[in-house]
Design brief:
By secondary structure, the protein is an alpha/beta fold. Helices cover about 45% and strands about 20% of the residues.
Length: about 180
């Protein structure tokens, strides 16, 4: 199944200031997440973010926060974003069945959120460059488990070109030149 911009929404999970330094290759994960958020904005795909216990783990990284619309960040205590009623309701209210997931940690909050999204009959796409864990092994185990459960593991470019659908548009030229990276 292909992604469709009109059917998609993005869920950014817990890329937070006090957690990010512990994530393996954190700068690359954050950069990939920022790139996806920029593509989403250009393609008019709604985005939202979660913060796991921000008093302890800090808030969403400033570079990502500036790419989010106002009132798009939800605090959570559960590891799975879908276990928070406000988040589940916000996702459902968008009436877009394809959920693109980014964030940390792959083997905890991302994994549990993805499994709950799948159980709720969403089509889930995980951008491999835009998820991370403290160890490479935990990230890989999480990606494997999510894929076995039915999530589609994709790259940033798969996402962009599926949302774009065709060449020859100004938006295609902007994104394919990599000007927003």
């Amino acid at each position: 199944m292909l992604l469709n911009a009109k059917q998609s929404q993005v869920l950014l999970i817990d890329i937070q200031s006090r957690l990010a330094p512990a994530i393996f290759d954190s700068a690359a994960v954050s950069q990939a997440a920022a790139w996806v958020l920029q593509i989403a904005s250009l393609c008019e795909v709604p985005v939202m973010a979660t913060e796991q216990y921000p008093k302890g783990l800090g808030h969403t990284l400033p570079a990502l926060l500036e790419l989010l619309p106002e009132h798009a960040v939800f605090e959570k205590i559960h590891f799975s974003a879908l276990r928070e009623s406000a988040i589940a309701e916000a996702i459902a209210a968008k009436a877009r069945p394809q959920i693109v997931v980014l964030g940390t940690e792959s083997h905890v909050c991302v994994l549990q959120s993805v499994l709950d999204l799948l159980a709720a009959d969403y089509q889930v796409f995980v951008v491999s460059e835009a998820v991370g864990s403290r160890t490479v092994e935990n990230k890989q185990l999480a990606l494997n488990r999510m894929q076995q459960a039915g999530a589609v593991i994709i790259s940033q470019e798969m996402l962009a070109f599926e949302w774009l659908e065709r060449a020859g548009t100004e938006l295609f030229r902007q994104i394919s030149k990599g000007w927003i990276r």
